[in-house]
Write a structure and sequence with these properties.
This protein is α/β, with parallel strands linked by helices. It contains twelve helices and 13 strands.
Length: 443
């Protein structure tokens, strides 16, 4: 059906449009039908401005040129598929349809495809991610690790169906059969490929954390065979780049052919032109190793010979100097011995002991004299004190005719008559013996 037949006839029931009064809803609905039926799917070129993503995942922005501005929106379902970063100032070509939003009387472009003008979306996305990761230091040479020589265990992250794994295994088999190969198969293109690759790199690092040192993976090859930029795109994903950067195992990137470059190549420790070259980098040829070992052996022989000749000269010179040194040491030893002998004579312990014995004898005599003198003084003092005590003794007083009277039933001394009563028994101590008496009277 032609588009003209879908357009509303605004004059079908109105002989004169000026005689009809429209409601706001009526005119908006008529405009909506005209615009949406006249402009179905269209391409529009313009410059992005006022870009604002919503929390729901929708992209709202304006398309503008020198004269006008058109509102546009990309809904979340399609926004997830946009590979490059939308930002203000970017010139783009959008595909979609014009719709009128009735409640506001506004029209906008519903975008279902968007491409950067003059540059493919994948190429633009690649350049934008390169700039972002480079600023963060993911390509920094300081982060690159050295690939170990002759590793015993090699990890490989690639597809089991591609030519890459066959090329790698053939080269390794031809060069060194005793190497252990640990393969973590992944999808290398299409939906889910980036998650597979990033997850496999992490899995190999996790394996190394658990494995004993002798069983750990020493180097990892990550890659695939050639293809278009779309085929190789999984190796341009930020998720894969960060997995390579965070890997504790050195990574060799081997993606596509020599002319192909990906973000993975820039982040990896070493970039190999092809998967076969990656295997050659990891394991050198046995013939090359033999030639290298022969060369090193010859260098070692020459070095040892030169060293032996030099060592012989050094030993002869050392022996001569040693003889001279021994003669000098012997002379010094004799002189030192004579000097020490003199010092020992002066410091003979027996002489010192004799001097101290004489000092001790003198001291003992002085102590003995002092002790005798002290004893005599103390004896005289004792004699005088004994005499004084004897003169003051009650027994001495009793010998001169005095007596002491006590209560007969107690030890109290009777000093005055008021202490006794007639009939009390008294005990009187004389110089010799005691008298028991009874009180007849007192005055």
């Amino acid at each position: 059906m032609p588009k003209d037949s879908l357009q509303p006839d605004l004059f079908s029931q109105k002989n004169n449009p000026q005689d009809h009064i429209y409601t706001v809803s009526e005119i908006t609905q008529d405009i909506k039908l005209i615009l949406e039926n006249t402009f179905g799917e269209i391409w529009i070129e313009g410059e992005i401005s006022n870009f604002r993503p919503s929390s729901a995942g929708h992209y709202y922005f304006s398309l503008k040129d020198e004269g006008s501005i058109l509102q546009a929106v990309i809904f979340s379902r399609l926004a997830k598929e946009v590979r490059f970063k939308i930002e203000d100032g970017l010139k783009v070509i959008c595909h979609g349809s014009v719709e009128v939003y009735g409640p506001r009387g506004q029209y906008q472009l519903i975008v279902d495809k968007i491409e950067p003008k003059g540059l493919g979306s994948l190429q633009l996305a690649l350049e934008q991610l390169k700039q972002k990761l480079e600023k963060e230091g993911l390509f920094s040479p300081e982060h690159k690790r050295t690939i170990p020589q002759l590793p015993s265990r090699i990890g490989v992250v690639t597809s089991l169906q591609g030519a890459a794994i066959k090329d790698i295994l053939q080269v390794l088999e031809r060069r060194f059969k005793d190497v252990h190969i640990i393969i973590n198969p992944v999808r290398v293109q299409g939906e889910g490929a980036k998650e597979d690759i990033a997850g496999a790199i992490k899995d190999m690092n996790d394996y190394n954390q658990q494995a004993p040192v002798c069983a750990r993976i020493e180097v990892m090859i990550v890659g695939r065979g050639g293809g278009s930029i779309e085929d190789l795109w999984a190796f341009n994903e930020e998720m894969v780049a960060r997995a390579i950067y965070n890997s504790r195992i050195p990574v060799i990137s081997a993606v596509g052919h020599e002319r192909d470059w990906t973000i993975a190549d820039l982040v990896a420790d070493v970039r190999a032109a092809t998967p076969s070259v990656a295997a050659e980098i990891v394991i050198p040829k046995k013939e090359d190793l033999k030639i290298r070992l022969d060369s090193l052996f010859q260098d070692l022989k020459r070095a040892l010979s030169d060293y032996a000749l030099s060592l012989g000269d050094d030993l002869e010179d050392l022996a001569h100097r040693l003889i001279l040194s021994l003669d000098h040491i012997f002379e010094l030893s004799i002189a030192n011995f004579n000097s020490a002998q003199k010092k020992l004579a002066i410091l003979n312990p027996m002489a010192v002991i004799r001097r101290y014995q004489e000092k001790i004898g003198t001291s003992l005599n002085q102590v003995s004299l002092a002790a005798n003198h002290f004893v005599k003084i103390r004896q005289a003092e004792f004699t005088r004190a004994s005499g004084r005590l004897s003169s003051l003794s009650p027994l001495s007083i009793l010998s001169r005719g005095y007596s002491i009277t006590f209560q007969a039933e107690g030890e109290g001394i009777i000093k005055e008559a008021s202490q006794v009563s007639p009939g009390d028994l008294l005990k009187t101590r004389l110089h010799r013996g005691e008298i028991i008496s009874r009180v007849i009277d007192k005055q």
